[in-house]
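fyi for ur records
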Amino acid sequence: MVAFRENLKLAWGTLAAHRLRSALAILGVVVGIAIVMAIGAILTGLDRSVVALLERFGTNTIFVSKLSPGMELGHHSREQRLRKPLTLEDAEAIAASSSAAVRVAAQIFTEDIVNVRYQGEEVSATHFFGAGPDYARVTNMNLKEGRFFTESENRHHIRLAMIGYEIDQALFPNESALGKTIDVGGGPFRIVGVFDRRKGNFFGSESHDQYVLLPYYTFRKFYPSIREHYFLVEARPKQLDQAVDQIRGLLRRRRHDGLNQPDSFYVSTAESIIDQFHKITAAITTVMMLISSIGLLVGGVGVMNIMLVSVTERTREIGIRKAVGARRRDIIQQFLFEAVTLTGLGGLLGLLAGLGLGWFLRWVYPSIPSAVPLWAMVSGLVVSLAVGLFFGLWPAIKASRLEPIEALHYE
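which gave:
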């Protein structure tokens, strides 16, 4: 313990005597660790948000669309973009033919952002779609107030609308939205329900709550040119895989997919999408780790350089220590301790910088979730100490090999 305190005192003394040189030497370590912290915070926040969103639908929910949900790396192929849309008849066929499916909710949607107006106030709806009454039960969505529309209202093309939490807060901050008539994309619709805030989503808690839902046939009446459908299927308990197989087989027959051709549609479950997202985040993490390792390498070389200079400057001191009985092991421990202290300080500064960067990004872009994982903090500090240990080893060994007589005569 006494030796530890002595080495720590010597290390801090050396760093204090050469502040600028020490700061430049550990700059690469600070940058590398800061990148690990910031990227780890953002990816962990996104991961938790995605998992929360998908788990909200339940473990028995199946997602069916023409294309993958946009989570794959790269763009969709030309063949995928040219696929014919799924139809309402496809959804009705699944409901009628799949014994493993409890209910099917078909959505029809537009990717355009529409404006929602009420008494001079205006807000943009990032998600505008129509769906049948089963949508509420399949998605397990909770209502803040009001009700869901009925099948009769859907069939009769009644001008009703349900709005998301953020639109409700923007247009009706101090009053109930129920019964109010809003203008959506140039048409009047009466609000019958307001959805509660969603538990999670892909890009934060706000953007995915800015949506307007119309009854399916009402949407089709006012937007007859839109044909893009998306299905949500609720499978019976313990029959998820069976339901997926039945849906794939039925749609392949209906869409005339050849025996050796791939599916002309996309079927997934919450678990498979989460697994896919984990693969993407793992790939991103690997790339970012490689980038941060460049900073750590530069920092390590800087530490080795400053330690070699320190050995040269303190040659006479090393000779005196050896002359009074210091062993090679003592000299190695002293210089290794100084190197580890140097990079450990860089690791702490990098940790603080990474936390600050994550907080700054969350402040500038509130829709980006962030949560610093414990593993990133621990691994950052461990890596910074390991860098000092690795790159400080050669200077420490070089110092320990100095001959006392030659070292004492060094000027």
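Residues 153 and 215 are 8 Å apart (CA to CA). thats all i got for now
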